[in-house]
Amino acid sequence: MDGGAEAVIDLAAVSANVAALREHVRGAAVMAVVKSDGYGHGMTEAARAAVAAGAQWLGVNRPSEALALREAGITAPVLCLLAAADAPHADAIRAGVDLSAGSVPLVTRIAAAAGQAGRQARLHLKVDTGMSRGGATLADWPALLAAALAAEAAGQVRITGIWSHLACADIPGHPATEAQLTAFGEALALADKAGARPEVRHLANTPATVTLPETWFDLVRTGGGVFGLATLPGGAPPWLRPAMTVRARLIQVKQVPAGTGVSYGHRYHTAAPATLGLVPLGYAEGVPRSASGAAAMWCRGRRWAISGTVCMNQFVVDFGAEPAAEGDEVVLFGPGDDGEPTAQEWADALGTISYDIVTRFAARLPRSYRTVASDQGLPPGLAALAGTPAG
Phi/psi zone of residue 362: left (φ > 0), alpha (ψ -120 to 50 degrees), beta? Predict the structure, then answer.
């Protein structure tokens, strides 16, 4: 992309985060959730780095993502988290991908797909414990169990997991979390009484993995945490490292007088004679338009606010009296090592979450990958990924 714009992904950070999460949960398995193109970091590359660091499971949204991982040669257990009736279940079953079901009709469809695939389906049953999104309510849970156990008795499915999702784990002390934990316990007791013997029970997302050990059970599902992010107040703990840096270079610099209106609507005017720099990134590349006048970026050893309205493919920075030059590097956000903003700081400034920030750049910017496996004691297989470009 013109102007050197790219997202640099630190695979060493991904692996270090997985290793730290494994240590933190003390024996529970870790699922690295790499859905949505690995939260914008690259699904396949992130999955390889996570598995190399010991992630026992991978989580994706759709079977197409799981099949892409299989085509890339990744053999680790993969769970499709989204339960959709029209998904290519038979293809997923043939590939040994675990599927999720939260309704009797979907169990029936998956059982039929197992017949088409000529292979038993691996099935996680989802209970709605209070998120009110996917899954069977406690009232519908016995019927779901009965349908799945009947399909299991017929040799069509194997109940490999029981799971749910927390709504408020990133709000410390929220009563909904305790209520959901209680409801999950009730669902597990009913499943056990009915004769279900799942391999794994899982409830914890990233914020629960970080702060709520009572939610860990057999497996934790960490998406943002794998990439050094969390939706907790203040973001992720310091033992998780952000893996994405978004950077570009100034493509034009000009001198303007005081009172110059900048960008659409002239919502910003220079307060004095100023140096304006043009950054070749805009909302089409992932920069939120709401970042206008709100978010900061890093250039020439300090932070600068975005000046005026973010355009489709560019934005302007007022450097004041600083002698900026064409080609100067601009860092929108990164791990914060040198003083640059982090994705969490962008999220705080824009009233959103860090996941929203990093996923905006998925498939919109060229990506490059960095790792220093030999220096950090990471698995040697990661070295092969160093410097790998991706579009």
Answer: beta
Verify that 68 and 203 share a domain, yes or no.
yes
Helix (H) or strand (E) holding 273: none
Cα 307 from Cα 329, distance rounded (Å): 17
**Cβ atoms 330, 248 nearer than 8 A:** yes
Q: By CB neighbour count within 10 A (0-12 exposed, 13-18 middle, 19+ buried), where does 61 fall?
A: middle
Instruction: Categorize the per-residue pLDDT at 1 as very low, low, confident or very high, splitting at 50, 70 and 90.
Output: low
In this prediction, residues 91-108 reach a mean pLDDT of: 98
Q: Looking at the domain assignment, is residue 238 inside a domain?
A: no
Active site residues: 35, 264
Q: What is the pLDDT of residues 355-380, one digit of tens each?
A: 999 999 888 899 999 986 433 444 44
Residues 44, 165 share a domain? yes
Find, among 163, 222, 204, the residue nearest to 30 by Cα.
222
| Residue 55 within any structural domain of the chain | yes
Q: 205 with 353, same domain?
A: no
Q: 65 and 189 share a domain?
A: yes
171 lies in the same domain as 305 = no
Give the number of C-alpha atoms closer than 13 A to the C-alpha of residue 303, restricted to the C-beta side: 17
Per-residue pLDDT reduced to its tens digit, 276-286: 999 999 999 99
- Enter the pTM of the model: 0.93
Final residue belonging to a domain, choices 161, 192, 227: 227
What's the CATH number where 119 sits?
Answer: 3.20.20.10
The number of C-alpha atoms within 13 Å of 379 and in the hemisphere containing its C-beta is: 18
Nearest-angstrom CA–CA distance, 69 and 84: 19
Structure tokens at 143: 């019927």
Residue 169 vs residues 2, 130, 139, 179, 270: alpha-carbon distances, Å: 41, 12, 23, 11, 44
State how far the alpha carbon of 282 is from the alpha carbons of 28, 45, 205, 285, 310, in Å: 42, 26, 32, 5, 6
Q: What share of residues in the chain are helix, strand, coil (percent, to 5)?
A: 35, 25, 40
DSSP 3-state of 19: helix
